[in-house]
Amino acid sequence: MGKTLYEKLWDSHVVRALADGTCLVYIDRQLVHEVTSPQAFAGVRARHRGLWRADANLAVADHNVPTKDRALGISDPTSRVQIETLDRNCREFGVVLFAMDDVRQGIVHVVGPEQGATLPGMTIVCGDSHTSTLGAFGALAYGVGTSEVEQVMATQCLLQKRSRTMRVRLEGTVPAGVGAKDMALAVIGKIGTAGGTGYAIEFAGSAVRALSMEGRMTLCNMAIEAGARAGLVGVDETTLSYLAGRPFAPSGALWDQAVRAWRTCVTDPDATFDREWVIDVSALAPQVTFGTSPEMVVPIDGQVPDPARESDAARREALTAALRYMDLRPGTPMTEVPIDVVFIGSCTNARIEDLRAAAEVVAGRKVAAGVRRALVVPGSGLVKRAAEAEGLDRIFKEAGFEWRDPGCSMCLAMNADRLESGERCASTSNRNFEGRQGAGGRTHLVSPQMAAAAAIAGHFVDVRHH
Amino acid sequence: MQRFEKETGLVVPLDRLNVDTDAIIPKQFLKAVGRTGFGANLFDNWRYLDRGEPGQETARTPNPDFVLNKPRYQGASILLARANFGCGSSREHAPWALVEYGIRAIVAPSFADIFYQNSLKNGLLPVVLPEDTVDRLFQAVEAEVGYALTIDLRAERVFAHDEEIGTFAIDPFRKECLLNGLDDIGWTLRHEAEIREYEARRRREAPWLFPAEGSRI
Ligand code: SF4
Fold first, then answer.
1. Does A411 sit in the ligand 1 pocket, CB within 6 Å?
2. What CA–CA distance (Å, rounded) separates A24 from A415?
3. If you measure from the C-alpha of residue B204 to the centroid of ligand 1, how many angstroms do you get, rounded to a whole number?
4. ipTM of model over 0.90
5. Interchain proximity A28–B110, CB inside 8 Å
6. Shortest Cα–Cα distance, A362 to chain B (Å)
7. A21:B171 CB<8 A
8. Can you give the pLDDT of all 217 residues of chain B as single tens digits?
9. Residues of B in contact with A21 (CB under 8 A)
């Protein structure tokens, strides 16, 4: 019987299998950022060991970095210490680092693929849950904790158990104005935030094949919000043409050899999955979340649901609490919800294609008077440069958006970019948890087009009719 | 890592679905470069009425309505929780904060994957019990001040008042590590030769994964 892509990736990385199924698994690439690595480097230092393979690691600061006035340095002393610690650790252990003034600096999950440092067939980890993004390349990529970051640094291996396999087939052609983000939210709405727990989800089907690498990354990025540790998409021509010529990707004869191997990074036709979903996306509407969990999502033409209609007590309680936190009343049409802030950015939606899609909606229009702040934060310095070459920065600035430097920014508000208590934000990020974008802040997750349209209207609107 | 064999302790109930790691330890405390000092900020947004900042020295204002602040739950070492506990960010600061506060085990119908693994690596035992058992436990804790559970890892059983409440499963390897306080790195380094062997084979099969000596990557 054939194997799924996940099984191929797993089997080819097992160094040793234990009786209970726990395996010692080899890790090809580790991406490192400033927040989850200091204790790991300290651990390696305490054991008087170097890194097992310094060249398997690639580091960049992203979570804490300021997104404006960088020349002035970092004013928050705790953020500064953390970033300086990363610099020092990378120097000491010989890890390649894209420093804050390097044009290649950006969000770790945007930078890795952009550099060709995340390749098909690899096992990739990072001390960050959205490492699932990189599964878009037919690689096994997932987030780990700091102890595991240290273990990979020290041994290039992890002790893990095989996940169960799930395939989510997205079939059909999505309507204009609907994209990967809407598909991701619709999947989570359907299977729930714990629906993928214990699984690696492979996204397949005609709608996925039609997506660009950017779109596939958006989809895999949010696999973790469905509870899965990893998202996957099989390799095809789209994957290969994205990788060709990237700085860290192989070239010449090595490229040809690699491509032959990468073409096998797909699920065999006769392979079976532990669980399978088929979702028709041909009539999918743009999605918008209303609550404090990504599964609390409705189509834009929908309404805030009524907790009274929820039969399960714990869910009813959760829904009631979410609406209280979000200050929303049951039955309110989503298009009548006004917004204060717009955030276009994050590892979900800050690649060039996302900025193009948003700019197309914004072009020639102005941010509504009621919107207090509208931010565009490119995913990396190279995305920023490409956008500027196309004139996207001017479109945003003329409309009244702020055009920032790359980083995680208001996705998690560890730097100065954050919501004030009570502010409501249309955000292209991936988590709408309480306080995620600032204590008391209210987050609605949407696509870049939907965020742009909301900025112009001052409330959520259906971008299909905008 | 602290060993775990059997724990008898007071139970504190946290009756919320999908408790995420940012609720367990809010992001502003992640700027620390050490592994300790997180216990005081466990559930910071819910536990205090004022907003906490790292390195803060002024006294905080506890939220009297938050369950961890109720006098009857002081000294609890077992956290009773709802489904999908620990979802969200991969931060290991979450189990660090729980352990430092004094939590030794968490009982819930399900856990988010990364949090589950991170807990095991810090001597914090996540115990999965069926949804209806957890429901009954919430009622029992509510009804009886001082309600305690005993979690026996070796037997994989949970008891209350000497009566069995349920059984749970845990990977034998993880169980062994917890019982002995063993960490993964120590175990892995015993298999160094095998890793080198695997690496040599991969280098032949997939040379593009191994940058040439002297190149930057
Ligand atoms: S952009 Fe947001 S989700 Fe992505 S790595 Fe940064 S903080 Fe995490």
1. yes
2. 37
3. 36
4. yes
5. no
6. 31
7. yes
8. 889 999 999 999 999 999 999 999 999 999 999 999 999 999 999 999 998 888 777 889 999 999 999 999 999 999 999 999 999 999 999 999 999 999 999 999 999 999 999 999 999 999 999 999 999 999 999 999 999 999 999 999 999 999 999 999 999 999 999 999 988 998 999 999 999 999 999 999 999 999 875 555 5
9. 171
Chain B touched by A312 (CB under 8 Å):
no
- Does ligand 1 come within 6 angstroms of the Cβ of A415? no
The answer to whether the CB atoms of B20 and A198 lie below 8 A apart is: no
Inspect the interface and report whether the beta carbons of A439 and B51 lie closer than 8 Å: yes
Give the number of other CB atoms < 10 A from CB of residue A101. 9
pTM reported for the whole predicted model: 0.95
Nearest by CB to residue B171, choosing from A145, A161, A248, is A161
Q: How far is B211 from chain A (nearest CA, A)?
A: 7
